[in-house]
Amino acid sequence: MLLLWLSRPGAQPPLGFLAVFIPLVFLGATWISNRLMGIPAMYEEWPADKTDPIERNVGWQQVEFCPFRGHCPMSIKFGRRCLHLKQPFPFQPFYWLGPASIPWSEVRLEKTLSDRRWAFLSAAEFRLGADGRKIRLWGKVGRMLQDAVQGKQGQDAAGPSPQAGPGAIRPR
Asked: 87-98 pLDDT, tens per residue?
């Protein structure tokens, strides 16, 4: 678009306009996508716990937030009491709030990673809190978080097994 403006004869667009317009569009799109993924609600529900000692820093990973399958890079750290998720870049709006510190008791394993070699597209799914927010992680990071959840909460971290029997529709 800038090339189209520069190639036309006549007045050039003011650089001040471009310097303001492009960051506003970027920040507006970032704000809308964060709202759709539920990141502000996550930060509101679980404020930063700065007293929780970090046991393991996993690094920056792509986290899929399941309602709209939006991806967002997040810094993931395992604390003694909490799982810490933080937007890692200063231009992301929630970077300045610190991490969302989710207690280990509120992280539930929904779906485990497949152990087969060809199942590299398999993702581990985790449910966060009582509201049922879901995140997905792939690969080594998904395996590390899965092992951490099972280690912190015991082996039945996936929850109770479903009960056999008739469901909501009952035979006559």
From this structure: 888 878 788 888
Q: How far is 24 from 32, CA to CA, in rounded Å? A: 12
- Quote the CA–CA distance of 72 and 36 in Å, as a whole number: 11
Q: CA distances (Å), 53 to each of 42, 84, 109, 143, in order? A: 21, 11, 23, 22
Question: What pLDDT was estimated at residue 156?
Answer: 46
pLDDT computed for residue 16 by the predictor: 80
Q: Where are the domains of the chain?
A: 39-153
Q: With contact defined as beta carbons under 8 Å apart, do 57 and 137 qualify?
A: no
State the pTM of this model: 0.72
Q: Which of 100, 110, 155 is nearest to 134 (CA)?
A: 110
* Nearest-angstrom CA–CA distance, 40 and 49: 16
Q: Which CATH fold topology does 39-153 show?
A: PH-domain like (2.30.29)
CA distances from 84 to 1, 2, 51, 116, 172 (A): 40, 41, 12, 29, 51
Calpha distance 152→107 (Å, rounded): 10
Distance of CA 29 to the CA centre of its chain: 17
Q: Look-up: residue for tokens 């970077």?
A: 95
